[in-house]
Structures are given as C-alpha cells and as structure tokens.
Specification:
Blueprint (H helix, E strand, L loop, with lengths): L4 E5 L2 H14 L5 H23 L12 E6 L4 E6 L6 H8 L6 H12 L6 H7 L12 E9 L7 E5 L4 E6 L6 E8 L15 H11 L7 E9 L6 E8 L16 H12 L7 E7 L5 E7 L17 E5 L2 E7 L11 E6 L8 H6 L1 H24 L1 H15 L1 H4 L5 H5 L4 E2 L14 E2 L1 H7 L7 E5 L3 H5 L12 E4 L3 H5 L4 E2 L2 E5 L9 H13 L1 H11 L5 E4 L8 E4 L7 H9 L10 E4 L4 H12 L1 H18 L7 H13 L1
Parallel strand pairs: 2-8, 12-14, 17-18, 17-20, 21-23
Antiparallel strand pairs: 1-6, 2-3, 3-7, 4-5, 4-7, 5-6, 8-9, 10-11, 11-14, 12-13, 15-16, 19-20, 22-23
Helix pairs in contact: 4-5, 9-10, 19-20, 20-21
The structure holds adenosine-5'-diphosphate and magnesium ion.
The site of magnesium ion has 6 residues, from α2.
C-alpha cells in the first residue's frame, strides 16, 4: 500500500560522521549489536513509560522483547523490537540527522578538529550519540521498518550508507521497529572478520555487551533432540541474555541470595563476598554502583599485569567495559562490581574515560563508600574483618603509600600484630590491633608509636630491640608495612618510630654514665670493630638492651634489612647498607671479651664473629656464611 518513496540526503554533518564511524571509530565491530540492542531496549523503555498514562498504546501486548533473526542465504541479520517505534517524521529526524541537542555543537567542533590529529576524533565523537550509524560498519545496506505504537500505517527507511536514504510508507501490522542489516562480505584477509549470521558469534557479543539488558533478547536456533536413533533437528527459541540488571532495583527488594548470585556472576568467585556496597547517586551526575569486597583473594592479586582495578562500567545498563581502571585506585583492585552511569555517552572511548571528570567524581564517592564499609566491618565484625585483612591487607596498605589523598583513612583500617598480644589467638581481634587502639592504650609518658620490622611475627617477638622500650607496646611490621607506613608521618599526632634505627634519646644521667663506660671500654670497642672489619659500620655501647648481648642498628633512613634483601633478590641494585653493632654494657660477655682481648687473640676474633652472627640471627636475617658460623660455634662449645 506504499504511496510515495522519497529520497533524502543525510544532513551534511551526518555524512561526515557516517564516514568516520565506518572507517575509524570503532575497532570492535561487534559493538554495532550493542548499539542497536541498546536502541531497541530504549524503545521498549519509552513505550513502557508512555503506557503508564495511556495503556491503549500497548493494545493488550505488554510483553516486551527483542528478537534476532538470521537469513543465511540472503546474509541478513534482523533486529526487531516491540517498543515505541517511529513514524515517518521521526525516522527522518532520528536517523537522517545527528539527532538532538548535539548537532550544531558537533558540526562546529568537527570543523575545528579538521586540521587536528586523528587521535582527537574519538574524544570528540565520544561526546555524541552516533549509535545507529555503527550498523554501517558491518552492513552495506540497512533497512528499517517501523510503526509508532498507537498510530496507523508504518514507514520503511533504507540506506546504503553513501549519503542518501529513502523513506516510504508501508503497512506494518505490528508496533515497533525492525532493522535489517545486509551484511558485508568478508573483505579479503580480514583476520578479525566475524560472521554475524552465526549463532555463536551473536551469542558471544550479546553475553559480552548486552547481558543485563532488561528485555529478553531471543533467537530461533536449531537443536538436535531425541534419543540416538530418533534424533531430529528442531527449531526453538532461546534467550541470549541473562537479563539481570540487579543493581537498578531497589535495595529493599533484593535478597541476600540474589546479591550472592550476582557476585558469582560478575566475579566468577565461588566464595561468598565479605561485604557489598550498593547505592544510587542523583544530582549533577546520576549513577548506580554495586561493588563487592571479596572474602578470599584470587591468584591475580599480585600479578604485575593485573595491578589495575576492574569494576565494570555500564551506561544505562549497556556494558561499556569490564575493566574500567578509572573507577577505583589500584589499591582497591580486589573489588568487583558495576557502575552504571545515566549520563555518560554510550560510545565513550578509552581516551575519554581516562580524562572524564565524571568518572573521577564517581571514583571519589565509591572509594569513600568502600572505606566506610570496611570501617563498619572493622567495628562490628572484628573477626571477619581480621580474616578479610589477612587476605587483602597487603594490597589495601598500598593505599597508605599512594599519594591519592586516602592515606589517613586507609591507615585507620590497618591491622598489626603487637608485642602485647600472643599472636594469632582466638580472641575477637585475633591478636591484631589498629593504630587507633594502640594510641588509646599508650601511657601518658610514651611519646611515639613504636614499631619493629622483620621477616615474621615470631622472629620479631624475640628481637633484642624490644628491650629498649621496657615493656611498652610495639607494633610488628612485616611485608611492605614499613615502606607503606613510612609515608604516614604521624597518627593522631603521634610519630611512628622504628625501634631498630638511629640513636636512642637519653636523659642526662643515663647518657653520662654510658659515656663514661664507653671511655673505659674504648680499647675493647676499637678491637671489636677492627676484628669485624667491613661487616659493620661501627661498634658502640647500647642504651637499648637489657638481656641480649648485642644488636644491629641501622641509620635513621635505612630500608629494613629484610626488605632490602627482598629487593636484591628481585634483581634490584641495592647497595649494602652497613649497620652499627651495639653491645650491651651490662652483659657478662663484655668482661669475657676484655679477658680474651689480652689473652687469646684468636678466640677473641672468633667470639666477635659469633656475636655479630647471633645479632643477625636474632633479628631474622640470614648469615653471610652459615657453615662457618656453625664451625666457630662448635669450636667454642668444645672448649
Ligand atoms: P541515541 O541512541 O544515542 O539517541 P542513536 O544513533 O543510537 O542515538 O539513535 C538515534 C535515535 O533514533 C534514537 O534516539 C531514537 O530516537 C531513534 N531510534 C533508534 N533506534 C530505534 C528503535 N529501535 N526504536 C525506536 N527509535 C529508535
Ligand atoms: Mg543509541
């Protein structure tokens, strides 16, 4: 019943854009499907909303769906929806021009960008909706048939993408839009060619990009059915998307099981999540975020190629990217989740993502919420939090080291073993303390937060350095603790001080007595230094020790020896930093050494070497020559 067929020119800017889209914009061809499905889903949304006030529009059919049909012979792919549809006027204005607000601004910017580099174009285009045109990446002819819900007739739009399109009236019995793509043939050696008549290719693209679209995306597929001798091919309808945009639903209506299932879906982690954060932000930018803190770490946590965060970004329920590193800092890379923005453009490019102020603002809010959630868990579920810390603390601590403004907040969430606890015990806090708790226990006369770094908690518990503080509490740092915490100048006004570094501040009386003792033992100290040679920087008397005979002390700014050793093992060029051997002036070994110094030179040297060796052992360091140490020791025992 076609009346007239009119031929139109694309609006000038649309033509240029078309060219860009076809030739340079999208590297991933399959996203044309994402764009068309997103349009179909928008059309269903629009009708659903319109029907709220005028349910005659539905004409009794309120089940929305999107259908894919393939014609292998004709090599066409058809995408049909039963959404709002378009009449002739709408189809011309929507598909013949770059629709809506952007037209003029876009034309201006495009003119300006003409002379500029091609890298600018994606950024530019990212700001404008050009979704429909992406059909021309895979098709050389596109036919759209549509009927606006509640209106008569119908319209057919057809274009070969070369600057012209035609429009004619048709009789279309059903509401909604049907887009038929005449797929381009494989172009020579194109290795990335995907055949969009293949079920697997379509299914793959849908799962990747449109899994959470709210309407079923259906397709007729052929399947064998029946037993061995009675097998026949049957056609059946299958749904390609899982259709669960859970995050858009009201929190109150979502069960724990649904949260858990969704977590499994996005994380592929079969352990239960530790906690989740789900919120909707309205205002300048509107978006929904649903993020999970896992309870068990995955293999990739310290894989150098996976150090970025991996929250998924959606725009209006359409998947944009599964690893959007702009949404969270790297020290929250263990978080799984989705952010669904209402206002970002659907075809936002990588480049645009990196510089998007909007994403930066989302990140800020998201980090704040996640830190708050961890803080809440720390307070309310101490044991579970401590286990969580055991899995992810090492990564989270990187947040104290980073310069991104969360240092103090992350420090509050850090847990450490301390000299006051018995280690991994059964109590609620499992023997771990926060900096805040430590400070609240500090006696009035204690000025600093003491810490000691070493390979492990067990070694630290028996370190001679603990003697310096006479039973005051000491935090035990292992792993990267000292490096991370070194950025934290103070906590609640208290400085963090390493027990094994620098000189001890003494009151006058103590200092004087130590100095006069040093004078008496001047010859001995010199002889020990001479005997140890290059192994130590110097030898002096100690104000840190009660029971141990000796300890090794580093310079104020030295790296912890274990960390230096670790970096060296990784092939980094770390100069050997020599340390000072401090002797306990009140230890019986001093008079023994004095004796040997004048009577038995050889045994004196051996004893000095043993003393140095045992100081290394006591702090958990490796001996330079364990076999030699054993031999010297046996020699001493045998006498
Ligand atoms: P955007 O989706 O960002 O608006 P598109 O180029 O993807 O840009 O689509 C342009 C316009 O064409 C849409 O805004 C919509 O009005 C119309 N349109 C496209 N596809 C459909 C469809 N399946 N049903 C109804 N309208 C559609
Ligand atoms: Mg669109």
């Amino acid at each position: 019943m076609s009346a007239t067929q009119e031929t139109h020119q694309f609006q000038a800017e649309a033509k240029e854009l078309l060219n860009l889209v076809i030739h340079s914009l999208y590297s991933d061809k399959e996203i044309f499907l994402r764009e068309l499905i997103s349009n179909a889903s928008d059309a269903c949304d629009k009708l659903r909303v319109a029907a709220l006030t005028d349910d005659a529009l539905l004409a009794g059919d309120d089940t929305f769906k999107i259908t894919l049909d393939v014609d292998h012979k004709a090599r066409t792919l058809t995408i049909t929806d039963n959404g709002i549809g378009m009449n002739a006027e709408e189809i011309v204005s929507n598909l013949g021009t770059i629709a809506r607000s952007g037209t003029k601004a876009f034309a201006a910017e495009l003119a300006e960008a003409k002379g500029s580099s091609p890298e600018d174009l994606p950024r530019l285009i990212g700001q404008f909706g050009v979704g429909f045109y992406s059909a021309f990446m895979v098709a050389d002819k596109v036919t759209v048939e549509s009927r606006h819900a509640g209106q008569e007739g119908g319209v057919r739009w057809h274009s070969e993408g070369l600057g012209e399109y035609s429009v004619e009236d048709i009789d279309r019995p059903e509401r909604g839009t049907q887009i038929t793509l005449h797929l381009k043939p494989k172009d020579g050696e194109d290795e990335r060619y995907q055949d969009f008549t293949q079920e697997t290719v379509l299914k793959g693209a849908i799962t990747k990009w449109s899994d959470f679209v709210e309407y079923p995306i259906e397709m007729e597929v052929e399947r064998y059915e029946g037993e061995a001798d009675d097998r026949k091919m049957v056609s059946k309808t299958e749904q390609l998307n899982s259709m669960k945009p859970m995050w858009t639903r009201d929190k109150a209506g979502i069960s724990d099981e649904e949260y858990a299932e969704f977590y499994r879906h996005i994380s592929k982690d079969w352990n239960e999540a530790f906690a989740h954060v789900h919120f909707r932000a309205e205002g300048v930018h509107s978006y929904t975020a649903l993020c999970y803190l896992p309870s068990k770490k995955g293999m990739e946590l310290f894989d150098p190629s996976h150090l970025e965060s991996k929250v998924q970004l959606f725009v209006q329920r359409v998947h944009i990217t599964s690893e959007c590193s702009e949404l969270l800092p790297s020290w929250l890379r263990f978080v799984h989740g989705v952010v669904d923005s209402d206002d970002l453009p659907l075809n936002i490019s990588r480049e645009t993502l990196q510089h998007s102020r909007q994403l930066q603002q989302i990140q800020k809010r998201l980090v704040k919420k996640l830190l708050e959630t961890m803080g809440k868990m720390l307070k309310k579920e101490r044991k579970a939090y401590t286990q969580f810390w055991g899995e992810f603390g090492q990564v989270l601590k990187e947040g104290v080291w980073h310069e991104d403004g969360y240092r103090g907040d992350v420090a509050k969430l850090c847990l450490f073993p301390t000299s006051n606890s018995l280690g991994n015990d059964d109590s609620e806090d499992m023997g771990f303390t926060t900096l805040g708790e430590y400070v609240s226990r500090m006696p009035a006369e204690q000025e600093s937060i003491w810490f000691l770094s070493g390979v492990d908690e067990k070694t630290l518990r028996s370190s001679p350095h603990l003697e310096r503080v006479n039973g005051q509490e000491v935090l035990f740092f292992t792993e990267i603790d000292e490096v991370a915490m070194s950025k934290l100048e103070d906590f609640e006004g208290k400085k963090l001080v390493a027990l094994d570094k620098g000189e001890v501040e003494l009151d006058d009386a103590t200092r004087e007595s130590l100095e006069s003792r040093a004078k008496e033992l001047k010859k001995l100290l010199k002889a020990v230094k001479k005997s140890l040679g290059d192994a130590v920087e110097d030898v002096r008397l100690s104000a840190r020790l009660n029971e141990s005979p000796a300890c090794l002390v580093a310079g104020e700014n030295a790296l912890p020896p274990q960390l230096a050793a670790m970096l060296r093992a990784q092939g980094q060029n770390m100069p050997e930093e020599k340390r000072v051997l401090e002797l306990n002036p009140d230890h019986a070994l001093i008079s023994r050494l004095e004796e040997l110094r004048s009577n038995d030179k050889e045994r004196f040297n051996d004893t000095c070497e043993l003393l140095h060796g045992q100081a290394l052992l006591a702090e958990g360091s490796n001996l330079p020559d364990p076999a030699r140490f054993a031999k010297l020791l046996t020699g001493q025992l045998a006498v």
